[in-house]
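hiii so my PI (J.) wants the whole complex modelled not just the main chain, which honestly fair. so below is everything: two entries, each one labled with what it is. i double checked the lines twice but i was tired so who knows lol
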Amino acid sequence: MKIILVGATGTIGRTLFKNLSQRHDVVPVSHSKSDIKVDITSLASIEAMYKTVGPFDALVSVVGSAYFGSFEAMTEEDLYKGIRSKMMGQINLVMAGKKSIRDNGSFSLTSGILSEDPIRNGVALTMVNNAVNGFVLGASVELQRGVRINAVSPGLVEDSASALGAAFPGHIPVPMERVVMGYLKSIEGVETGKVIRIYG
Amino acid sequence: MKIILVGATGTIGRTLFKNLSQRHDVVPVSHSKSDIKVDITSLASIEAMYKTVGPFDALVSVVGSAYFGSFEAMTEEDLYKGIRSKMMGQINLVMAGKKSIRDNGSFSLTSGILSEDPIRNGVALTMVNNAVNGFVLGASVELQRGVRINAVSPGLVEDSASALGAAFPGHIPVPMERVVMGYLKSIEGVETGKVIRIYG
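here's the output for the full assembly
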C-alpha cells in the first residue's frame, strides 16, 4: 500500500514510520522536517500535498494540537486554535483526500484518552478529541468505494510520560508498541467508524 | 431559581418555558422574538446578554444549527457554520456566563442523538454534537463554586417527526414531555459532566 503519514517526525509518527515501512510504501509528511510538507491548518496546503503525492491507499494522521492550560484564562481564540489544528486540520485531510484515495482505502485519525477521561487544563483537548471521534463516525456512513475511516485514541504514551505525566495524575502510560497496534488495526484491518482505544 | 432560557421560542424551548415558568423565574432569550435577544455566533452579543440579565442560577441552551446535507458537496465553510453556531455558540454561553452564574448554578446545553447514531447528510451534526458533549465533560471538572454542567442529547422529537422523520430512518420519535424531563434532571438535579440521553 501507498500510505501517507502526516506527522511522520513526531513521537508516534517516527515509530509508525519504521513499522509501516517494513511492509508498505510510506510517504512521510510533516510541517517542516520532511521532503513533503503540509500545514494542516490550511486547506490549500493540504490540497497541494495531495496533488504532490497523487493516488494513495491510506492516510494516517498523527498530528494536531490544541490549547492546554487554565480554564479561567482560556479565550475563544484559544479554543479555535485546537479547532483549526487537531480538529479541522485532521478533518480537512479527509475531506480533501477522499477524491484521490483508492478504492477500499482508509483514513486513520488521532484523538486521545482525554476524550473520555478529562484532566485539569484539558477541556480544549477533550472537546477536540470528541469532535474528531464524532466526525469519524459520521463520515464512516458517507465515504464511498469501500473507503474506511477510524480514530485511534491513545492514552498517555510511555515516551511522553516523563514530560507530560504530571499533568495526567493516575493515567497509566501506554507502551508505544501497543499504540502502533491501534493504527495497524485501522490501516490493515477491516473496521470503519470506530474509535480504537489504546489505554494503559 | 432565575433561569436564562436561550432558544425560548424554538420547538423544545416553548415547552420548556411553560414547564419551568411554573416553578422558576425564567428569562426567555432568543435570536429575534424575545425582549432579550442574542446572536450565539457572536461572543460580544452573548456578553451583552449576560450584562442585561445579571446574576442567574441556571442557563439552558436549546439553540444552535449545523450544516445538514450532501457529504460530497460539503465545504470547510459548511463545517464552520456548525462550529460557530451549535458548537462554539453554546460553549461561549458557558465561558462568558461562568462569571455571573451563582454558586451551585448549572449550565444545560443541547447535543443530540446524531452524536452516536449517524444518518446520511448528518456528519456536521455528529461532529458538533460530540464536541458539545466533550466540552461538557471537560468543563465539568473545571467549573468552580459548585457550578454544574450537562448536555441533554434528545432523539428525534415527536413534534419534529413529520418535518424531519424522512431523514432519520428507523429513529423512534421521542415525546416532548420526555425531552423536557432531561432538562429538568440537569437543571433541578445533582449531576454534572453527563450526557443525558433522551431517546425513543
